[in-house]
Structure formats: C-alpha cells, structure tokens
Amino acid sequence: MRASLKRTGLARHLGCNIETVRYYETIGIIGPTDRTASGHRLYSQADIDRLRFALRLRDLGFCLEEVRGLLAMVDGGNHTCGQVAEMAETHRRNIRRKLDDLQRLETSLAGLIATCHRGDTPDCAILNALATQ
Fold first, then answer.
1. For residue 73, what is the domain's CATH number?
2. How confident is the model over 15-47, as pLDDT tens digits?
3. CA–CA dist 34, 7 (Å, integer)
4. Alpha carbons 128 and 64: distance in angstroms, whole number
5. How many CB atoms sit inside 10 A of residue 32's CB?
6. How far is CA 65 from CA 10, 33, 87, 89, 108, in A?
7. Which domain holds residue 67?
C-alpha cells in the first residue's frame, strides 16, 4: 500500500463510506491532512491506522465520545492497560444491560403475538392489548 491515500482510496481501503471519512475529519477523530498540489487530501499511514481503530471501536458499539476518550488516552500516552480494560468492561456491562432490555422486549412481544388468532376480522388481540396497556 502507498504511504498516503486520497479520501476515496481511504474509504475504499477501510470499507467505509466516503462521508464517514469526511465526518470523522470534521469532528476531529482524524486530524487535518496534507494536500496535493490540486487540493486533494492525502491521508498518511497514521491517519489510516487511526481511522481503522476508530471504525473498529464503532463496530464494537462504542459511542463517539468513548472513541474520543480512548483516542485521547492513547494520544496523551498516559493510559494504562487497566484503564483501557475498565473502559471496555464498562462498555460490556452496558451491552449486557441492552441485551437484557431486548430480551424483555422480545418476551413481551412474543406474549402479545401469542394472543393473536390471526383471523380475517379487524378485531385484533395485539392492538387491543396495546391500547389497554
């Protein structure tokens, strides 16, 4: 791979949308870049690695503030493995809570669906249950 990529090449290389690259630059996840004589942005290997890291965090469900926080820790060089592990553990607990909430929602919805006789009349047990809850 070349030492630098234009925005389109970077998006293609990382498998993301060009608008994602543009947005991450706008919000400061990746910094200002060098430009070609014709004005095209050129992203360095460090930019590529940083954006790949941020995208991976987003794939794991970290919000942008968490991504920024972790990047700030790494950029400052004042992080410990324990701090990173705690951040990951907090995120895992949040995911577990969301999964528990989704399980409750699924169980509730399954109960509503079970009341349905699937008849050809407009009288619907699901709608009736929703209207009275």
1. 1.10.1660.10
2. 999 999 999 999 999 987 778 888 888 999 999
3. 11
4. 41
5. 9
6. 23, 22, 12, 16, 32
7. 1-79
Domain match, 84 and 74 both: no
Distance between CA atoms of 49 and 43, rounded to whole angstroms?
A: 10
pTM of the predicted structure, to 2 decimals: 0.77
| Domain tally, the chain | 2
How far, in Å, CA of 104 to CA of 124, rounded? 22
Which residues have a Cβ under 8 Å from the Cβ of 113 and sit 6 or more positions away?
Answer: 126
Q: Do 1 and 55 have their domain in common?
A: yes
